[in-house]
Amino acid sequence: MPGDVVPASVPVMTVTWEESGWEQLAPGVGRRRLPGWDCTAGLVLGAEGVLAVDAGSSLAEGARLRTEARELTGRRVTHLALTHPHFDHVLGAPAFADAEVYGAVGLDVALAGRGREELRADAVRWGLDPAAADEAVAALVPPRHAVSGEWTLDLGGGRQVLLADVGPGHTAYDLAVLVPGDPGVVFCGDLVEESDEPQAGPDAVPSRWPAALDRLLRLGGEDAVYVPGHGAVVDAAFVRAQRDALAARSGVSE
């Protein structure tokens, strides 16, 4: 994991987090709760680069996130990390066409061929307008960078961000984003949910989910802020309790 370095400089913000509808979690780190499915999007500012975490549920939502990021920083998003292949997290990705896109190894396969058909069907089933789903799926490009194990992004000014392939769990391709600092921030994707019980669809791997949360806790530590895929930010105790509940439900030994 990168050293706990608070960046020496971040972009000069042209508006505040609050003015743009975002929640500041740490210096240069924020998140937005998106309407509709209460999905989280994240933003990490460095002196030379800007990382977005997840892209929303449609091209329109992705474009709004891209515009808000530029309003906040005065610069474009240079990197995009996708935490897992569900429509409310990935269908806005084509709006970041000039960003370097990262996902857990295998995510490119999940977003191609039959996976695209299932993604579109899932989006419509959950209430996304069919035309919006068609538009986003047609424009979707698999991530260029496959993360196996850990990958450190240097955003400049001492800001290093760790991408970690911590799954399978919620899906077969769960990516966590860890931002060291005071406090450290862990973007968990839907491995952690606060606004409802963790959702285990047909692509979940329940027997491996507790181990994925153990990995999150080891990487983030006791004092980090944990950002769920849906809901309010939580602490390590919440993640540990959710881990224990999932272990009991799936019959995984402690």
TrEMBL record:
Q: Which residues form the signal peptide?
A: none
Superkingdom per UniProt: Bacteria
Record domain Metallo-beta-lactamase: where: 38-230
Task: Name the Pfam families on file.
Answer: Lactamase_B
- Residue ranges spanning the membrane: these are none
Q: Which PANTHER family match?
A: ACYL-COENZYME A THIOESTERASE MBLAC2, METALLO-BETA-LACTAMASE DOMAIN-CONTAINING
| Protein name (database record) | MBL fold metallo-hydrolase
